[in-house]
Amino acid sequence: MKTIKRYRLPIVFIIIAGCIVSYIAYVYFHYYAFEAYKSELSKYSYEKGSSFTPLKDSKPEIDGMVLAAENDILKLYTNTKTTEIAIYDKRSGQIIYSNPVDRENDQIANNVNKVALNSQFTVTYYDSNMTESTMYNYDSSVIKGQYKVESIKNGIRYIYLLGNLDSPTGIVPKYITEERLNKVLSKLNENDADIIRYNYIKSKNLDGFLELTTGALNNKIGMQKMNSLFEKAGYTREDFDADNKAAIKAGAKMEERTTFSIPLEYRLDGDKLIVSIPTGKIVETGSGKIAKIDLLNYFDAGNMNEMGYIFVPNGSGSLIYFNNGKKVEEYRQDVYGEDDATKTYDAVEKTQKVRLPVFGIKHDRSAVFAEITNGDALATIVAGVSGNINSYNYVYPSFTLRGTEKVSMFGATGASADLPSVEKNMYNLDINVSYAFLNDDDADYSGMANYYRNELINRKVLNKKQDNKSIPFYLDIVGGVKIQKNILGIPHMEIFPMTTFKEAGVMIDDFIKNGVSNIKVNYLGWFNGGYYHDVATKINVVKSLGGRKGLEELNSKLKASGQTLFGDVAFQKISYEAKNFNWKMEASRYYSGYVVSFGLPNPATMRETGGLGYYENNYYILSPKFLIRHVSQFDNAIKSINISGISLRDLGDTLSSDKRRTDVIDRQEAEEIVINQIKDLSQIKKDMMIQGGNMYSLAYATDLENVPSVDNKFYIVDEEVPFYEMVVHGYVNYTDTPINLNGGFDKQETILHLIEYGLSPRFTLSYKDSSEMKYSSLNYFYSTQYNIWIKDASDIYKKVNDVLKCVANSAIVDFQSVEPGVNKISYENGYTIYVNHNDESINIGGINVAGKSYVLEGAK
User: Fold this and answer.
1) In the predicted model, is pLDDT for residue 397 greater than 80?
2) pLDDT at 260
3) Does residue 39 form part of some domain?
4) Please, what's the largest Cα pairwise distance for the chain?
């Protein structure tokens, strides 16, 4: 017994220590050492360039420029003195310039803006004082001769060195090793060598280095002589930079000059010009840190004497007319919306996101259509009109290459200031923008949409839909909702079944009896605790809805009648209610280290931090680092469940980076990770519904919800167009927001809008009355009881289907506003639809369209 007691304590200690070590090992390998996502990130190569020699040009097309590349369709010209380029289109004879040809005559632009007009890109950076500054490649590189030009396959590369290379000592180094100095002196005669040697002494502060004497530093004439002797010895500015770097590395207190070496590449690819900046080859010296680059700000810009417009991907799409007189701030929108890991909590007006990374500019008989093919997740589309900063109408992409974050500093007297915190490393990617050149009848936004659709078809992003006898009817069914209950006065949360699986079957039977077909059911709140569900690493179908058996019986019932059942799932937005989520480890973080989390807009503070009384309304953003693990586990679980499809609530809608200082995942890398997860889920061979419909998700979607069907009414914008719909119609089924949850319901206007934009009707409904959700986190689902809506919903569907079923599998090839309030929509199969939003009837080419009505003209 004594022996047992003697060893009891050490054994307990060993067990406890073992448990602690095991836990530490688990945390390390499960979170810190988890790097599976890295295998999904792109690696970029850099093409070796050669000395530039202009090509022989049998028929020179542009004065003052030489031929850099040519194919069967295009010629690429450049002026090696200004580094501007121009494209000659052999098909039309049109010439497109990187910079306005008449820019020197601009009467509006000031000196700085004229420099911008001469530039091919603009760099925004932070200096050592964290002050935001700007460099233009024209005055910071070109006019100083600080650039070189190389030939690359099918194109040309300019390598610019931006910055002031002058120093107080010229190219004479303040510090130099004796070995390096002797190498210089060996190339001079004895008298010249003595002059240099006399002005250096052994450094007191830097071991192994010689240092210029104070007398030499203060003797301007002597320094000029020293510079000439160093040049005579063959010592170059590159040698000077190398010696400065060596001295700084050894501890010298001297600041490197702020310079940026940036390569800019132009390549011809069929009918397109590909413009690239390989950021991995950007070199920063000194304290400057690049934050963003604006690329080809004035490519094919329109002047004040032209008629035309700018196309921007604002929601469904918008046009900004040339010279519209709106002297306001520029149009500026982030592609795919704001990055959650960089945006503030301040609530702003809800806006439609940019879903497609494209833009364009139209002139009289020509147009340029641009697509950002890499760097899209880091891009912002910017556009402006003449009369504000210059005489031109322009559109261009701006790329964030390093994140910044404002840190509030509070003083003792109550004064405060926001200082920027800048990420240490620049993002490594190849920025790629392709410019296509359209002419004559194709030179408008309809031609741009047709071109882009064909591009996506060729890339296998879009595939023609199978023949459908009717358009879809989208029915979001509200299932499990958490509601607070009390047992003996003790509050607790339980799942309330707004619609059981059997009740859902009854609803669908009623819709079918009322003439609705091809129903696409998106079941909300079907697993893991209801609508704001636990993390989707496992699947527990809600028992109060009918459990897994009820779900699969519903799926079989729908499948037998030709309908489709989707299960809604969120991966990236994790509710505070989630029980199996380690937010300290798995949530994305701001660069400051704080966890990224949001809530609903708080009416009192107008900040997106409120749960409005319901804890589950708040959510964290899952780091892209761990997305692969969550999706993989869900993937394994869903395979065994008999359900026809899955609906991705956020993978095609939300795109967030993770700014952890030790392992930053930028937004472009996050996009690659998300794409691979959607691709993996598509391998399950189930239908896939995607909310939002960002471009990178289109290749995997059978159905899209919440697509942008309006634009944002920015002041600078002049006209709304259905560009998004023109690209995807006939290839992906789509709808926008639920009709019954839109304020100001107007039945006839709803029908007109659906027909005009090729949209399928969508409703969010429940079997039980929506008042049951009054005291729940879903109280904004304020009118969902299906008996109230079934008549209107069925009527809307039948009227829209009677028209759109004729064009369900056909692309929209042209959209025209033929009269104010009257639009003509042409489809590739020959059908034409006229929609009249006015109260009065109108006759268009012999076709009478009644007020608030529409006409379908048959295929020819």
Assistant:
1) yes
2) 93
3) no
4) 110
Residue of 619, 547, 525, 609 lying closest to 576 (CA atoms): 619
Structure tokens at 591: 């660069």
DSSP string, 192-261: HHHHHHHTEEE-SSSTTEEEE-HHHHH-HHHHHHHHHHHHHTT--HHHHHHHHHHHHHTT---PPP-EEE
Same domain, 787 and 856: no
Quote the tokens at residue 301: 């810009």
Q: Report the number of distinct structural domains present in the chain.
A: 4
Find tokens 């003792």 and name the residue: 412
Q: Is the pLDDT of residue 600 over 90?
A: no
| Domain assignment of residue 860, yes or no | yes
Residue 595 and residue 589 in contact, taking contact as beta carbons nearer than 8 Å: yes
Boundary of a domain, candidates 235, 256, 277: 256
Q: Predicted confidence band at 2 (pLDDT cuts at 50, 70, 90)? A: low
Tell me, yes or no, whether 421 and 352 share the same domain.
yes
pLDDT in tens, 795-833: 999 999 999 999 999 999 999 999 999 999 999 999 999
CB 102 within 8 A of CB 189: no
Q: Which one is predicted more confidently, 476 or 170?
A: 476
Give the DSSP letter string of 144-164.
TT-EEEEEETTEEEEEEEES-
If pLDDT is split at 50, 70 and 90, which confidence band does 697 have? very high
Q: What is the 3-state secondary structure (H, E, C) of 300-360?
A: CCEECCCCCEEEECCCCCEEEECCCCCCCCCEEEEECCCCCCCCCCECCCCCCCECCCEEE
Tell me: do 778 and 838 sit in the same domain.
no
- pLDDT given at position 271: 97
Host H or E run for residue 12: helix 2-27
The CATH number of whichever domain residue 352 belongs to comes to 2.70.98
Which CA distances in Å does 618 have to 327, 487, 572, 580?
A: 40, 25, 13, 16
Cα–Cα separations (whole angstroms), residue 466 to 463, 517, 730, 808: 9, 16, 9, 10
Is 5 part of any domain? no
- Whether 303 and 381 map to the same domain: the answer is yes
Domain-terminating residue out of 421, 456, 491: 456
Residue-level pLDDT at 595:
85
**Residue 720: which of 751, 757, 694, 769 has the closest Cα?**
757
3-state secondary structure of 117: helix
Domain assignment of residue 21, yes or no: no
Q: Are residues 236 and 314 in the same domain?
A: no
Shared-domain flag, residues 446 and 476? no
Distance between the two ends of the chain, CA-based, in angstroms? 102
Q: Tell me, yes or no, whether 480 and 601 share the same domain.
A: yes
Q: How confident is the model at residue 555 (pLDDT cuts 50, 70, 90)?
A: very high
Residue 748 in contact with residue 835, Cβ under 8 Å? no
731 and 742 belong to one structural domain:
yes
Domain harbouring 601, CATH code: 3.20.20.80
Give me the domain span that covers residue 705: 460-809
Q: Are 586 and 571 in contact (CB under 8 A)?
A: no
Residue type, 578: A
- Residue reference for tokens 């079989």: 556
